[in-house]
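Human: I would love a firmer grasp of how sequence relates to backbone shape in proteins. Could you go through the record with me and say what the backbone is doing? Here is the record:
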Amino acid sequence: MTTFDVTIPVLNEEATLQQQVRTLHQFLQLHFPTPGQWRIVIADNGSADRTPLLGKELAEALTEVVFLKVPRKGVGLALKTSWSQSTADIVGYMDLDLATGLPHFLEAFQALTEGGYELVYASRLHPKSRVINRPFKREVASRGFNLLLKAYLGVKFSDGMCGFKWLKRDIFQDLYEAGAQNDGWFFSTELLTTAEWLGKRIFELPVTWTDDVSSSRVEILPLAKRYINAMIALKKKQP
C-alpha cells in the first residue's frame, strides 16, 4: 500500500477552511478507503484569525486530518516543515481553494505509483489544460514569469507556480540539498528546477484550473520582485 500526505498551507483562512478540507476529505475517503493510507496536513503558517482553532477542530473530528503549527509565515516553510516530519511514500500539496480539479490527484498518484515518475506538477500552460476565470493581468504575469525562468535558468517545465505538486518523499532531501530551500512561494518553483538539475523523472499534468479571484491576496509587483531575487539566488546554486 502506497501512503501519501496532502499538505495544505493556510494563512488566515477561517472563512473557507472547514468546508474545503471536508470536501477534500470526502474525495480522498471515496477513492482511498483503506484506513491509514493517507493524511491531510493543515500547515498553518502564521494565521491571526480563527484558522488554528478551526484546524484543530477538524483534526479532532476527522482521524485523517492533522493540524501543524508552523513557527512563522511562508508557504515554503510550511511545506518543508510538513514533509520533513512525514513518513508517507508520497508528499505534496494543493491550495485550499482547490483550484486544481480534485480528480487530477488520481492521475498524479497513478503517475507516481505506476508510471515510474518521481515528481508530478500541474501545468495551467499545457495545451490540454483548461483555465477558468483567470484575470488577464495574472495570466500575462504568469506567462512572463515562466518565460523568464526558461531564459534565465534554462529550465524546460512549463508552469513553475501552480500550487499542485507531488513527489516521492525519498527524493525530497535531494531537492532540498540542491537548492529547494526558499521559505516563500518560490519554493514551488525550486522543486521543479532542482528536480530538472538532478535528472529526476518529471511528469507534466494538464489540468482544469479555476481561479478563485475573490480569495486571492497576491500582489503581482511585490511578488515579482521577490521571485526575481529568489531566481538570482537559485542561479548561484546551479551545477
User: Anything to note?
Assistant: The chain has two domains: 1-98, 99-239. The first helix runs from residue 17 to 31. The helical segments are 17-31, 51-61, 75-85, 103-113, 136-153, 172-178, 187-197, 220-235.
